[in-house]
Amino acid sequence: MRHKIYLALATMLLPGAALANDAALLLGVERYETLGRVARGADVANANDGLAALGFRVAALPNGRAEPTLTAVQTWLDTIPESERIVAVLSGRFVTDGSRTWFLTAEAGTPSLFGLGDTALSLESLLEVMAARQGRALLVLAPEAQGGAIDPYLYEGIGALDIPQGVSVVTGDPSAVAGFATEDLTQPGGDLLQLANQRGGLGWQGFVPRSGFVLMPLEAVPAGPPQPTAEQTAAEEALWQGAQALDSVEAYRNYLARYPMGIYAALAEEAIAAIVAEPNRADRMIEEAMNLTAAQRRTIQQNLQRLGFDPRGVDGIFGAGTRAAISAWQRGNDFPPTGYVASAQLTRLEAQAARRTAEAEAEAARQAQAAALADQDFWRETGAQGDAPGLRAYLERYPTGAYAAIATERLAAIDAEIQAAATARETSAWAAAEAANTPAAYQDYLQVYPQGRFAPEARARITAGTAPTPDAPPTVPPADDPAASAEAALNINAMTGRVVEDRLNALGFNPGTVDGVFDDETRAALRRYQEARGLPVTGYLDQQVLVRLLADTLIPGVGQ
Q1: Can you say whether residue 291 is alpha, beta or left, with left for phi > 0 and alpha for psi between -120 and 50 degrees?
Q2: C-alpha–C-alpha distance, residues 307 and 113, integer Å
Q3: CA 106, CA 94: separation in Å to the nearest integer?
Q4: What is the structure's pLDDT at 250?
Q5: CA distance 508 to 552
């Protein structure tokens, strides 16, 4: 498609053809890949021959995708500096956010405000270019639809245009604009304002002369000599492609020596001028000769970044951001700020980056050591004391500190002990209420533990007015045994006994049948538990054993 665009321009430059001094851009899309068809959308490209006959250098493209469209626009832009008249015709789908408008190319998907990318052409940019020819610039727009909402930010069609002074804008549907472009625009000396009014369905904005608008030349350009043969064109095309591949002054001169009035003669002259005028071309070629891989380019970008020169991304692509970063680094190292690197410069850049990395690592290590010392000092003054306030103070300051795991574990143990003691107190209170077995006793329990574990049972017994007969008490230990006396002092009833046996069973110490009776199996289980926990092995309960047993089962792992 790119060659077709250039060939459309080149037909105006064949030997013997009249010199074209006007520029026209014709973009029309009928077949969108995903957005459906636009009837007669591409017909505006048919105005190519008529405008060429009037002396226009025409870049015409039907159903163009992003890259060919941008190429056609660039071709049009390149001809504008030497043109007296500027014409641009766009037909297809447009979107707007109200103040800005874009023309969509053929591969555009469902548009979004931040997803237009290369598939959209800005009308504001076209208008800005056309402002250079006040009174002799015409923009013709043919939106397929107008006003339909795409999302909360975009609408179909054309928004409010900020039209520069001296620029005329004609709008209409694709069918009306196709007729206007192919029939009215191509009339020599035609009054375009009158022709648009006669056609109907067209609106006119911006520069509207009162006496009519005659933009086109008064007569067509006579036809030139016969076109070159296919073989001649192919030979010239091959030589031109070779010149472009070499991209050197000598290669373009060689083309001009063979085809001084050739299709690409003007382009060859422009290429030579660009090469001669290009700053730092020699430096660019030195860098290109190194054939840097993408990985090597990423390393260069990373080194620049380490030294504080932002390449705007580490992607292996040397765009404007990377070139600016290279120039800034070169300026700071007494190199000419060309934006291109040489081998010796890369060596210095790598050395500086390595030094900066080592310095950063050393500073990071110093800061880490200082932070560790501060952590340690804070621990000594807070958590190392072992009390809950100190532990909490440390964790609040250093939630992920060196001693955070220890502090968390110790706090959990303290909280477990507190919880176990509270549970034991409640169990004792309930045992006392059961021992009294009166509504008043159960009311006393509820006053202290209104939401306690035994609260529902206490309320049920109070409601009943009389308490059920308690289960058979545990076996009575010998009165002369201190351990047995300590257990007897706990006044454990059958229900509490079942709780103890249930806890022993849950911990895997096998107390036998859970019935509240402390028989030989229960005593053996108690001894195994006491031995496993490093407690005096008696086979009897006391306050310490009871609290520890409840803590072990309330919070798994505590005390093991």
Answers
A1: left
A2: 36
A3: 11
A4: 80
A5: 12
> Token match 């076109």: residue?
227
Interior CA angle at 294 toward 289 and 295, to 5°? 110
Helices (H), 142-219: 174-179, 192-199
* DSSP-derived secondary structure letter, 201: S
When pLDDT is cut at 50, 70 and 90, the band that residue 317 belongs to is very high
Distance, in Å, from the CA atom of 327 to the CA atom of 310, rounded to the nearest integer, reads 11
3-state secondary structure 76-88: HHHHHHHCCEEEE
Spatial separation of the C-alpha atoms in residues 393 and 411, rounded to whole Å: 11
Q: Give the amino acid at 277.
A: A
- Of 66, 75, 81, 74, which is closest to residue 22 (Cα–Cα)? 81
The DSSP symbol for 191 reads B
Cβ 102 vs Cβ 153: under 8 Å: no
**Cα–Cα nearest to 92, from 46, 152, 35:** 35
CA distance 25 to 460: 94
Q: Which residue reads 């191509």 in tokens? A: 186
- Angstrom distance (rounded) from CA 272 to CA 249: 5
Encode pLDDT of 218-274 as tens digits.
Answer: 877 655 445 678 888 899 899 999 999 888 878 876 775 677 557 887 787 688 777
CB 90 within 8 A of CB 62: no
Cβ–Cβ under 8 Å, residues 491 and 435: yes
H helix intervals, 95-248: 123-130, 174-179, 192-199, 230-246
Q: Encode pLDDT of 19-46 as tens digits.
A: 457 999 999 998 887 888 899 999 999 9
Where are the alpha helices (H) located in 382-517, listed in sequence order?
A: 388-397, 404-436, 439-448, 455-464, 482-489, 494-506
Alpha carbon 347 to its chain's center: 35
Q: Do 548 and 425 form a contact (C-beta atoms < 8 A)? A: no
DSSP string, 257-276: HH-TT-TTHHHHHHHHHHHH
* Average pLDDT for 534-545: 89
Specify the pairing of strand 137-143 against strand 167-172. parallel
Are 88 and 140 in contact by the 8 Å Cβ rule? The answer is yes
CA dist., res. 516 & res. 419, Å (int)? 24
Across the range 300-305, mean pLDDT stands at 95
